[in-house]
Amino acid sequence: MAEPLTRPLRVVVWSTGTVGRHAIAGVDAHPDLELVGVWVSSPAKEGRDAGELADLGRELGVLATTDEQALLDMKPDAIVHTAMTDDRVFEAIEDLVDFLEAGVNVTSSGPVLLQWPEKILPPELMERITKAGERTGASLHVNGIDPGFANDVLPLTLTSLSRRIDEVRVMEICDYSTYYQPVVMNDLFGFGKPMDQPGFLFAPGILSIAWGSVVRQLAAGLGITLDEPLTEEVDRRPAEVDTPSVSGDVPAGTMGAVRFQVIGKVDGVPRVVLDHITRTAPDQVPEWPTPPEGDGCYRVVIKGEPFMQCDFVHHGEHGDHNVSGMIVTAQRLVNAVPAVVASPGGLVTALDLPLVTGKGLVASA
To answer: Any idea where the 2,4-diaminopentanoate dehydrogenase C-terminal domain is (predicted)?
Structure first.
């Protein structure tokens, strides 16, 4: 068991984008954490106060910098890393290894394959992460909401109620029209592009790299060995009408919705399934599963004895499910910092951590 904290942990937030700005707010609100630095990639943000960048309406007395080495020289206890990694996976991994080698613990929203990199990353790269952690004692934990809590801690906890498990299915069912991330929406998913130009995600094998970590970690938590390779299924549908989206409008006839699955089988039988249903308007493809309310949810379906279904719905005070999706991603990273700092060095997965809670965050009035 970790020793009680005798002082707040000194934390640097790495980037101030769609997740990073919420990470700043989260660190500021956490009684066991102290924000001591903020890294930004844009010279236009250099020298601006973190409270301004996070839209907190007040200054925090911490100025953003593009100087990576200056932040590492501060010897923070942890970095909450929320920089975009989807389009620079291996460069981002190099950044994370640099942090470990500098003796700084890290919680990160990506690259998501590090949630459970077995059979994805080359052994020599895994060895670098392990050796860096062994040498410095620093730990790395990659998580968020999906990949993350919605398809690791939540479903595995629910399976503790099972007598027999036939299949575990973890689902994201969301309208992405208010999700501002043009690279993800346009290049990776291919929304708004002609149907004969699939997004990068749907090239053979890419889904198993991006979400295979989810399926394999669940399998590890359930004590089963999956057939390899994992199975991928993709069903792309055109938008029937011109559809507005904050990341770029989706003209009628271009790709407007997609359902993809990454399926882990045992002796040919599906046992663990990652199932994503992504729309750019809530009324698209009505025959696909829909959320119980609003525009999105995470759903866990456990077939067996007993049958169980859990719908996890969230929304922000000031924004929809895509805004709160950024908040819960940030908070999973922020709230995990004390446990990650207390962990032995190297890669730490959700199966390694103790129960992470919102301790200290109950409102006082």
So the answer is: 151-356
Q: How far is CA 107 from the centre of its chain?
A: 11
Cα(306)–Cα(316) distance, integer angstroms: 33
Q: Residue with structure tokens 């729309």?
A: 279
Helix pair 123-136, 89-101: axis angle to 10 deg: 20
229 preceded by a cis bond (ω within 30 of 0)? yes
CATH 3.90.1150.10 fits 9-142+324-347, yes or no: no
Contact present, 96 and 81 (Cβ < 8 Å): yes
What gap in Å lies between CA 154 and CA 144, rounded to an integer? 12
* Residue 71 backbone class (left: φ over 0; alpha: ψ -120 to 50; beta: rest): alpha
- List the structure tokens of 14: 């790495």
Q: What are the two backbone dihedrals, phi and then psi, of residue 240, each rounded to the nearest 5 degrees?
A: -80, -25
Q: What is the pLDDT of residues 112-160, one digit of tens each?
A: 999 999 999 999 999 999 999 999 999 999 999 999 999 999 999 999 9
What is the reported pTM?
0.93
d(CA 309, CA 311): 7
**pLDDT tens across 239-250, in order?**
999 999 999 999
Cα torsion 171, 292, 313, 89: sign:
positive
Q: What is the DSSP string of 156-223?
A: HHHGGG-SEEEEEEEEEEEE-TT---HIIIIIII-TTSBTTS--GGGSTTHHHHHSHHHHHHHHHHHT
Cis before 306? omega within 30: yes
Q: How far apart are CA 167 and CA 117, in angstroms?
A: 22
Domain locations in the chain? 9-142+324-347, 149-313
DSSP code, position 114: G
Amino acid at 218: L
